[in-house]
Amino acid sequence: AIDVENYHTYEEVMAYLADLANTNPLVTTMVAGASVEGRDIVQATISSDLAANKPIAWFDCNIHAREWITAATCIWIIDTITTGYGSDPEITALVDQYDWKFVPIANPDGYAFSWTNDRLWRKNRAVNPGSICMGVDLNRNFPVGFGGTGSSNGPCSETFHGAAAFSEPESNTLKNLIAADQGRVKTAISMHSYSQLWLSSYSYTSALPSDYTTMLRAMRAGVDAITATYGTVYNYGSTGTVLYIASGVSTDHYYVNEGVLHSYTIELRDTGLYGFELPPRLIVPTATETWNGIKAFMNAI
Ligand code: 0X9
Ligand code: ZN
């Protein structure tokens, strides 16, 4: 068990996932790859019948190191699903319909560094040849629009895109996970903070995808259920129109190259009062409303 009301170190989260896999027959874990510094990148799967090859709801969390509420929310959701299966009818139905897969800490080195050295660290911990600055922005290291608007070729920038698409083992690991389940991924959601936004493709351009009407309907279902919980206001729409243009992001890759129509970035609480340093007392409310949104969204697609 884990104390879902607090933030946890990388080691604590890994120990929780290992314990869950050992004690709960619904849960399996796999080491999907290794970070620059050699930490495991772990995916947890919740399935009531692995052999059935059900459609998948897939989540990456904490691509950005300082966005601690994203791992905390994914952990809360894992805990809620595994606890509720068999007693909560809505959870039971959603687990019987889908396999649920989570990468709770997609950027382990950056996350660890944000605990020990720099709470506001964003990137991974790659050594950049010829520069004293470390780190690549993993959410600029994917191929769609790689190197374009909203990314930087400077290693000291917070949005440094890296030497090439998938130059980083962390982004490469996410690519491999989605590709391994190609054809089964019903939705892929990248959890970020902060701003209270539900974002679709495209991110690399202000042009709208051909599936945008379908995406808007799905996002609206999610956002309405979030707001219905505690009144938290969310905006939604394509990243390039609602937020800003960002090239080389994960979710454009899932949509454009992997054919995942329902590929979204969710920017969790808040809108800037606490920003990335959301107090622990807001973990459970944030996770609760987010899960209500995801359930409504899943039932709408
Ligand atoms: O700039 C980013 O990478 C994201 N915002 S954050 O404050 N969490 O860094 C937004 C990216 C949005 N694009 C998509 N992934 N669609
Ligand atoms: Zn982010």
From TrEMBL:
Swiss-Prot/TrEMBL cofactor(s): Zn(2+)
Gene Ontology biological process terms in this record: proteolysis
Residues forming the catalytic site: E267
Claim: S-adenosyl-L-methionine is one of the keywords in the record: no
Keywords: Carboxypeptidase, Disulfide bond, Hydrolase, Metal-binding, Metalloprotease, Protease, Signal, Zinc
UniProt family annotation: Belongs to the peptidase M14 family.
Span of the entire protein shown here: 119 to 419 of 419
The keyword Hydrolase appears for this protein: yes
Protein name: Zinc carboxypeptidase A 1
GO cellular component annotations of the record: extracellular space
Domain (Peptidase M14): residue spans on this chain: 6-301
Highest rank taxon of the organism: Eukaryota
GO molecular function terms attached to this record: metallocarboxypeptidase activity; zinc ion binding
